[in-house]
Write a structure and sequence with these properties.
By secondary structure, the chain is mainly α. About 80% of the residues lie in helices and about 0% in strands. The longest helix is centred in the C-terminal third of the chain and has 26 residues. Pfam families: UbiA.
Length: about 325
């Protein structure tokens, strides 16, 4: 009986430790990175991506993002221990030691690079490592604690996954890949700033100069609206002039963009309304998920065949 009890306790301890390491990777953030990577791969392959390459690239992307997020937790463990929403994380609570987190992050990064280099190509592996470097070096170390524009420039790290996906499929970076980069880059501030508006007291407590802390809710809401206005025409560049997406994607991008602009406008009218900020933050996530889904569905050969048949049928009806 005693042996069974100890075994059960050990199992619970092991599962708890696994969960701590899992939490270090910030899995909720990784999901969006994988969605943008998947959409990029579908677009680059015109809906005919190799399933094995698709799987390896997504796993490698998750490992690279997990590595970057773990290093971010390691670097920010001092302020995480003070902020209400982060003080129970594995590092500030002492459940994982800093050296353990560092070894874990290095192992994730090396595995990601090797998988991409072996099963995709060197360019995609180097881009994944560049994403880690930008997130850790530019955003976490340089800008996060020194500039209210930290998320604008540092957001480039979150825009690299589509480049990884495109490079994994094609071995190069064509202009449409950079459009995908630009979409994520411009989307990041109006996605993150509403969240920063909600938790600005935490940021103020640890002297992190997020835009709402430095310039207030009114200025932040205006900046969100400006970036949202810039986002919509950027998404349409995939339709024209680059022509890698078609009518279906373009229509969905316009509808989603209009909804995003409307919600950003609503927040600008009431910048101190926490419910509006929360609603916009949640919608920004849904927006990106649906936009990527539209890219992927539009790129499928089946979709193109259906649209071609529909266009032909309408044209035939018009000639009667």
């Amino acid at each position: 009986m005693q042996e069974t009890t100890w075994t059960s306790a050990d199992q619970r301890g092991f599962l708890s430790l696994l969960n701590d390491y899992y939490q270090l990777t910030k899995p909720r953030l990784i999901l969006l990175f994988l969605i943008t990577t998947a959409a990029s791969m579908e677009l680059a392959s015109q809906g005919e991506v190799n399933p094995w390459l698709f799987l390896v690239t997504l796993v490698s992307g998750a490992l690279a993002a997990g590595s970057a997020n773990t290093i971010n937790c390691l670097y920010d463990r001092d302020i995480d221990g003070i902020m209400e929403r982060t003080r129970h994380r594995p590092l500030p609570s002492g459940r994982v030691q800093p050296w353990e987190a560092l070894v874990f992050a290095i192992a994730l990064a090396m595995t990601s690079f090797l998988l991409l280099t072996i099963f995709a190509n060197l360019l995609s592996g180097l881009l994944a490592m560049a994403g880690i470097a930008v997130y850790v070096g530019v955003y976490t170390h340089w800008l996060k604690r020194s500039s209210s524009k930290n998320i604008v420039i540092g957001g480039a790290a979150g825009a690299i996954p589509p480049l990884v996906g495109w490079a994994a499929v094609t071995g190069e970076l064509a202009w449409p890949a950079w459009v995908l980069f630009a979409i994520i880059f411009i989307w990041t501030p109006p996605h993150f700033w509403p969240l920063a508006m909600l938790i600005q007291d935490d940021y103020a407590r640890v002297n992190v100069p997020m835009l709402p802390v430095v310039d207030g809710d009114g200025v932040t809401a205006k900046q969100i609206f400006i970036y949202t206005l810039a986002l919509v025409p950027t998404t349409l560049l995939l339709v024209y002039p680059f022509g890698v997406s078609g009518f279906l994607y373009g229509a969905i991008a316009l509808v989603l963009g209009g909804m995003f602009i409307y919600r950003a406008w609503e927040l600008m009218q009431a910048p101190s309304d926490k419910d509006e900020a929360r609603s916009l933050f949640k919608f920004s996530i849904l927006y990106m998920m649906l936009l990527c889904a539209a890219m992927a569905i539009d790129s499928l050969p089946f979709t193109q065949e259906c649209l071609t048949s529909l266009t032909t049928a309408i044209a035939a009806m018009g000639t009667r």
